[in-house]
Every structure is written in C-alpha cells, then in structure tokens.
Amino acid sequence: MTYIAFYKFLFIIELAVAEFLFTFRLKKRSLYPLRLSAGVLVLLAFAAIPVPTDTFYFTCAAFLLLFGLSLPVMLFCYDESFLNILFCAMAAYTTQHFAYELTNLVVSLVERGTSPLLGMYSTAVIDLGAMSKTTVFSIVLYLVCYVASYWLAFGIFGKRIRGGAFLLLTRPSSACYNHDSSRR
User: Fold this and answer.
1) What is the predicted pLDDT for the residue at 115?
2) Residues 6+ apart with CB under 8 A from 134
3) pTM given for the model
4) How many C-beta atoms lie closer than 10 Å to residue 120's C-beta?
5) For range 41-57, the mean pLDDT
6) Cβ distance 103 to 183 under 8 Å?
7) Residue 91: is its pLDDT beyond 70?
8) Which of 58, 99, 156, 182 has its CA 20 to 30 A from that of 145?
9) pLDDT value of residue 118
10) Phi, psi of 177 (to 5 degrees)
C-alpha cells in the first residue's frame, strides 16, 4: 500500500471521528448505528479508489471530494437541516485539519526537521519492516496531538451543539449558538 492510499483511509477515520464529535447530539434517523456503519464503509470504499496524486490539484480535489461525500452520509444518518449538517461538517473538517497541522508542527519541532506526515502524500510503498523507534515515537505524538485537538474542539464548540436547533455563529466569543426557533 502506498502512503497516499493509506492516508486517504486515515483521513476518512479522522474526519468521521471529528464529525461524530459535532453530531452525536443531533437528532438521529432510525437504524442509526446501521446507517452510520454503512456510511463509513461507503466513504472507505471511495477512499480506496486510486486517483492521480502527482499534482497538488489532484490531491486537493481527492480530499475535498472525500469531504463532500461525507455530507450525504451525515444527511443519511441525522434528521437535521442541510445547513446544520454543513455547519457540523465544516467544524469537523476544521478540527481534523487543525489536528493534522498541529501534529506536523510538533513532530517537526521534536525531530528537528521535516515531519514524516508530509510524506503521507507520496506514492512510495509503505515498508513496515523499516519502522524505527522514531516512527513509533511519531505515531505516539500523532495520537496525543489528535486526541488533544479533538478534546479541545469538543470542549469549546461541540458541547454547545444540540439537535433540533438552528446552528449559527452570533459573535466570535460565543463560538456557536443553538438558536431555538420556537421562541420567535
């Protein structure tokens, strides 16, 4: 398996976890566990489709397409408006990307060089036999950075999201607000 093929699978898992953090309190459709499982499997199947990744444009398009495909999956799982789903999806993608960039920064600083995560976009084949202590340490840093980022994002934003409310940004200090439309 190539690094880019592996990273597309990893991206789907990272995005699905982040999306769950922002949506698990939303109103769920019937058979939710089955819908969620099927949706993630569909996204993983799309991630398995090989795409040319020799240019920045193809790589960006591939990841934006994977993100775009997660929106119908979320609509399939949750009984919410498209705008609420889009709001949660954008929050999730922002959280995933922040965690990725934080991990790159931390690993680059600790290892005093280029982060190995930047190599995830290459078409080189993964050699599991070449795994070193540095690689294992980078994986641990990756996990710590992702857990910390997701926990922080959930603590600041995710806890405020409730199902059935219209989600909107009111002012920067409020982060997100559940507007109860029944009070109008």
Assistant:
1) 61
2) 111
3) 0.83
4) 18
5) 87
6) no
7) yes
8) 58
9) 57
10) -140, 135
Q: How far apart are CA 126 and CA 124, in angstroms?
A: 6
Which residues are within 8 A (CB) of 53 and not within 5 positions of it... i.e. 6 or more apart? 4, 59, 62, 121, 123
DSSP per residue, the chain: -BHHHHHHHHHHHHHHHHHHHHHTTSPBPTTHHHHHHHHHHHHHHHHTS----SSHHHHHHHHHHHHHHHHHHHHHHB-S-HHHHHHHHHHHHHHHHHHHHHHHHHHHHHHTS--GGGGGGS-PBP-GGG--HHHHHHHHHHHHHHHHHHHHHHHHTGGG--TTSEEE---GGG--EEE-GGG-
Every domain of the chain and the residues it spans: 3-183
Tally of CB atoms within 10 A around 63: 20
Residue position matching structure tokens 């910390």: 148
